[in-house]
């Protein structure tokens, strides 16, 4: 079983974003697996970097999507993305220095992913549905 399992509760019904969330989860699970089997630090950091880079790509795509439909909560959503990237970089730096932050990192990530997808990503998804139904 993976560290974080995809679940129908996370489905936004925005296909491109759902696909990206699945990739995000797969990259996070990959990092977790390496850390759990105590792979070399360089390997773990490389996986974490890949996860962070993909997270940035996903956020940029999501922000473009929100901007295209003039989403009213865009600024708030973007600042949540920015603060997550800041947190991730901090964890990355601690890990590089050899601090034992892995447990904290994965707990934080699991909580964040669930809360963010269900709590805030879902709002732009429902906004996009109502916006398309209005233009029909
Ligand atoms: Fe988001
Ligand atoms: Fe997202």
What does this protein structure show overall?
With 136 residues, the chain is mostly helical. Helices cover 79% and strands 0% of the residues. It starts with 14 loop residues before the first helix and ends with a helix. The chain has four helices and no strands. The protein has one domain: Up-down Bundle (Four Helix Bundle (Hemerythrin (Met), subunit A)). The mean pLDDT is 94. Helix 1 (15-36) packs antiparallel against helix 2 and helix 2 (41-68) packs antiparallel against helix 3. It binds fe (ii) ion (2 copies). One fe (ii) ion is lined by residues 21, 58, 62, 117, 121.
Give a quick rundown of the structure:
The radius of gyration is 16 Å and the shape is elongated. The longest helix has 34 residues.
Domain count: the total is 1
Q: Total helix count? A: 4
List the ligand species.
fe (ii) ion
Q: Between the first and last Cα atoms, what is the distance in angstroms?
A: 43 Å
| Class of secondary structure makeup | mainly alpha
DSSP strand count: 0
Low-pLDDT regions: none
What level of helicity do the residues show? over 70%
How would you sum up the global shape?
elongated
**Would you list the SSEs in sequence order as H and E?**
HHHH
Global mean pLDDT: 94
